Amino acid sequence: MSDPINANPTIIDVSNLPTRIGQDTKATNRNAELVERITSLSLLTPKVHHPSSPATTVPDLVSDVDMDSTEDELVDEDDEDEDAIDAQEIFDLISTISDPEHPLTLAQLAVVNLSDITVTLGQNKNTDISEVLIKITPTITHCSLATLIGLGIRVRLERCLPARFRIRILIKEGTHQSENQVNKQLNDKERVAAACENDQLLSVILQMLSTCK
Amino acid sequence: MVKLVKSIKAHQDKAWSVSSHPTLPLLVSASTDKTSKIYKLSSKQNFPLLADLEDTHKRSIRSVAFKPPLGGDDAPDGFLDLPALAAGSFDSTISIWGIDEPSNEYDDEELVANQQEIFTSPSNEWNLMAIIEGHENEIKSVEWNHTGNLLASCSRDKTVWIWETDPETLEEFECISVLNDHQHDIKNVTWHPNQNLLASSSYDDTIRLYKQDQHDDDWTCVGILNGHEGSVWCSKFEDWASPLAVKNRTRLVSASDDLTVRIWSCVEGEQDDVSSTALPTSIKHDSEMVWELETILPSAHKYPVYSVSWSKKTGKIASVGSDGRLVVYKEDEGKWSIESVTESSHGVFEINCVIWASLDDKTEVLVTAGDDGYINVWEV
């Protein structure tokens, strides 16, 4: 690509992004952390951090809560919502999509934000038609790549989510000069279907999705 | 109230469109999998597959339409017409398909008397008769006029093309008009079932109507319907033969991304009065039609409404869309109500198309096509 449209975007450090990915490893780390906290109670042992523990940098759901209760609560929740998809899961699916012009992810550029994702599940959350609403924030108001970014998010979600999800992608209010135009195009199933049959466009999208975890 | 009669796994990907032959029990479908399939609309024979039209289009087939028989669907018995159809694709071309006249097996009388059986037999070979090129990009819809000599097509290139052909040979298609009144992508074209009046629905939220000028034969836009607050996905005219049709009144039903289904009407007598008083003669066109929104049908859809169909037999309307609902509306003394709502009619999938059709035993059915690749047949 020639001149970048936004040459100097604000970047968020990956470690400051909310995620549930790798939570299993964190669970094992939590044991180490527990040991650490217990040992740190001893006056003899200086407080050291386990080098691989992300607990100090990640404002994660589990890191700062009281440990006794967390274990149980998490287990309960997991049982109940075995397959229920929530905003965090959607965020984890799209946060690592690459920006089409920067070697950064959409989450790093704050194009996608956890607080701008709404999941509305059907009455039976595992079988009924459900809805995902994502508001994206282009890095600059005249970003001509907004449609491409939206399309990338849609393709990613259409491939990952069960068919019962209706995906709605909107430009966050007031963040783009042709908001309505972009919104209309991104949510027109026929336009999206036709765009995805364009090999050139599809290869750009696949490139964006190649960094997805 | 609506009962599933048959569910056919017709395609490997989205089924976009279905069309039924006006007089023969034939159904054709179109899909993202680049194929069209032809089935016999016979519940006794369990809806056999008659033909698989493949290896022709490079991209999704978006729209299919059977050509009405010569002389219209009220042609007298004993009239012979070989079935044919048009398929419009995202690859910007239209393909025309038909069957050869059955060979010497039958004499003419036999052929005429048994055409319903002969033309719906799997032994007929469906051949590619023509490929029509002209549109710049994706074709969204194709439709024949009631006499089968005109074919309309529309595209993301913002134009409607009218092609003229000899309906007996279907060899040549000459473009007689390119209409570029819309500002955006055109989603659908539909002909009036009894006259040469054409409507196009667009991404620009409007519907436009076109007629041939009486003086110079040119096709011109004679009306524009404003009101929808989102793309108009589909529209259909009321047949003059419908039990609720009124003389001199033309009605159109439309389905939109704004979740509504609307009925528009044009009353001829009234129109003359209006145009003579409201417009100075200098800008008055003889052909201009005055259309009004008659009503918005009771709200029944939660997501965009993709397709609508008006029954010639009962005057009922059916609509389908992204919410998976199949909705049937009926009119009683000018007032429309919802007769039935069938939830999840293609499971959790979106429904792209609905049509009224007749089975070989003349039972009226609804046929729907969904993102699940299925074609469902419903008794009402």
Automatic annotation (TrEMBL), chain A:
Classification via Gene3D superfamilies: 6.10.250.1280, Fe-S cluster assembly (FSCA)
Give the UniProt keywords, A-Z.
Answer: Chromosome partition
Q: Which SUPFAM superfamilies match?
A: Fe-S cluster assembly (FSCA) domain-like (SSF117916)
Q: Which domain of life is it from?
A: Eukaryota
Tell me a GO biological process for this protein: chromosome segregation
Sorted alphabetically, which PANTHER family does this protein's record hold? CYTOSOLIC IRON-SULFUR ASSEMBLY COMPONENT 2B, CYTOSOLIC IRON-SULFUR ASSEMBLY COMPONENT 2B-RELATED
- Write out the similarity annotation: Belongs to the MIP18 family.
Protein name, as recorded: Uncharacterized protein
UniProtKB/TrEMBL annotation, chain B:
Cross-referenced PANTHER family, in alphabetical order?
Answer: CYTOSOLIC IRON-SULFUR PROTEIN ASSEMBLY PROTEIN CIAO1-RELATED (PTHR19920:SF0), WD40 PROTEIN CIAO1 (PTHR19920)
> What's one GO-annotated cellular component?
cytosol
What is the name of the gene encoding this protein?
Answer: CIA1
Phylogenetic lineage: Eukaryota, Fungi, Dikarya, Ascomycota, Saccharomycotina
Which family is this protein grouped under?
Belongs to the WD repeat CIA1 family.
Pfam families listed in its UniProt record: WD40 (PF00400)
What are the alphabetically sorted keywords of the record? Repeat, WD repeat
UniProt key word Repeat: yes
Give GO terms for biological process: iron-sulfur cluster assembly; tRNA wobble uridine modification
InterPro entries the record matches: CIAO1/Cia1 (IPR028608), WD40/YVTN_repeat-like_dom_sf (IPR015943), WD40_PAC1 (IPR020472), WD40_repeat_CS (IPR019775), WD40_repeat_dom_sf (IPR036322), WD40_rpt (IPR001680)
The protein's name in its UniProt record: Probable cytosolic iron-sulfur protein assembly protein 1
- Residue ranges of the WD repeats are 8-49, 132-164, 179-211, 366-380
Origin organism of this chain? Suhomyces tanzawaensis NRRL Y-17324
Query: Function of this protein?
Result: Essential component of the cytosolic iron-sulfur (Fe/S) protein assembly machinery. Required for the maturation of extramitochondrial Fe/S proteins.
